[in-house]
Amino acid sequence: MRRVAALLAVLAALAIAGCGGDAEPGAPVGATLMLDFLPNAAHSGVYLAIERGLYREQGVDLDVRVPGDSTDAPRLLASGRVEFGVLDIHDVGIARARGLPISCFAAIVQRPLASVIVRRDSVIGRPADLEGGTVGVTGLPSDDAVLESVVAGDGGDPGHVRRVTIGFNAVASLASGRVDGATGFWNAEAVALRGAGVPVRVFRVDRFGAPPYPELVLCTSERFARLSPRLVAQVGKATARGYALVLRHPDEGLGALLAANPALEEGEQRAQLRVLLPALSPPGRLDPAALRAWAAWDLEHGIVDRAVDVGRAFSLGR
Predict the structure, then answer these.
(1) Distance, C-alpha 42 to centroid of its chain
(2) Is residue 307 domain-shared with residue 195, that is, in the same domain?
């Protein structure tokens, strides 16, 4: 009986050690991925990878969850309550500045999505024309950085632009003419406005002073990356393969997204994916030079109060 008890104790210890650890062939390990926002075209590669069984091929049974708030993923990652998360890169910088040990290991969207959007039928023909006008911002720190970079990048003075907080109502505010411009994503709000018949002009932040940083990145915690490096690599590989498939077969990526989230409107997501495709390449790759430039830009524009240590915050081939 003592031998049986000892054997059971060993098996229990192995089971506990295996939870959240590296995947073994033939034994998929459960893991949770928290999205940055509601499911949309930017997540199509994740859903296609799930539909095609790419995570299971890598020994991972991935469960995708939607956050209740944009700050959920960094906190849950840092606490170990979820293993993986898709994060806006500025949220990574803010989280690390607050002491949350977030570690990112793959890019999801390779270009900034932030922009300043104006109506094409207005007198605003270029960013500098916003001087003396009103621009709606959500209230996030990155919005001020985007607006300042875009206006200054065109030779204007951001100090002469009036800012009003409109939350996430850029579409309604621009459609009604309440503001002269608004910060928003060129793959989301700009697409929605065009779909609603509102002609827009879009000033992308990386064309006016910002570096070509990746907007969305795939992350885990430093602790999980240290304890389960193979599992992290497997998730990164499957995700990159999913986005590579989307680039080759966009309709299949859209289909996987809609099958998993039937409440989404197909026409809007198709339009989002169409404009987003160039920003999904190369799948997964993190560019050290772009990340260092992003860290300097975030510090310069006050998104963080100290520079992000890129070597610690990102897994760059190690």
Answers:
(1) 8
(2) no
